[in-house]
Amino acid sequence: MNRVYISFIISLFAGLSTALGGLIVYVRFKNKNKFISFSLSFAASIMLSLSVLELFPESFIKIASIYYGLGIVMSIIFFILGILLVKIINKKTPLFGNDLYRVGVMSMIALILHNIPEGIATFMASYNNINDGLALGIAIMMHNIPEGISIAVPIALSRKSNKRGVIYSLVAGLSEPLGGLLAYLLFKEYINDITISIVLLIVSGIMISISINELLPESFKYDNKRETIIGFILGLIAVIFTLFIL
């Protein structure tokens, strides 16, 4: 089979795992408010941990190692740009409806932006070496599952539609293989460590802003501190585990 097709299939399965995480909305819970607090805190922890432990430091080091002092300034600027993008999008909040729905939409936007360069990495790794691509794809699948939860839960609860929650998580997941394939076919000469690092610095700014300003405050609204703390700790453990696998 053509290496392009194999690479696409590996990145496709990695992306579809996001929708797999979204299927949690079909699980019945006795106390809906506790479930919301846990899920939002878990999602916030996933985004914060992923940004702080992987996206920002790796991207920062790559850019700084090439451009030195200028690289440090560039990294900070791109990170702040991500935070500013969230503020710009928040000005359009009437388009997104209530707070819980906005949280879900913002999470989907952030994860689409995150999944595209992730899809490029999976696609390119698979194209160069199938075994490396499979290993990376499996690791990405594991941390895409909780990402799907962070999108599907607020969407499903705010719109009282489990199907819609899963569809939104599926859209975010499909951005991974499609982004990887299109980037390879159309812009492969421009794809390098620097361009990917720039995108991921912006994404880390977006994710941290959403986590601190949207997900965690929304989680605490339901007065379930125990569930919020447990969700945050489990999210951190999940990220550390998947990064260890990577």
Give a verbal description of the structure.
The structure is a single chain. This protein is mainly α. The protein has one domain (3-23, 31-245). Helices cover 88% and strands 0% of the residues. It has nine helices and no strands. Helix 2 packs across helix 9 and helix 5 packs parallel to helix 7 (162-187).
Q: What's the main sheet like?
A: none
Molecular shape:
globular
The succession of helices and strands, N to C, reads: HHHHHHHHH
Number of domains: 1
Helix content class: over 70%
- Helix/strand structural class: mainly alpha
- The parts where pLDDT drops under 50 for at least 5 residues are none
Beta strands, count: 0
* β-strand amount: under 5%
Tally the helices.
9
Compute the average pLDDT: 84
Distance between the termini: 26 Å
CA-atom Rg in angstroms: 18 Å
Describe the structure in brief.
With 246 residues, the protein is mainly α. The chain has helices at residues 3-22, 32-67, 69-90, 93-96, 99-128, 130-159, 162-187, 193-220, 225-245. Helix 1 packs antiparallel against helix 7 (162-187) and helix 5 packs antiparallel against helix 8.
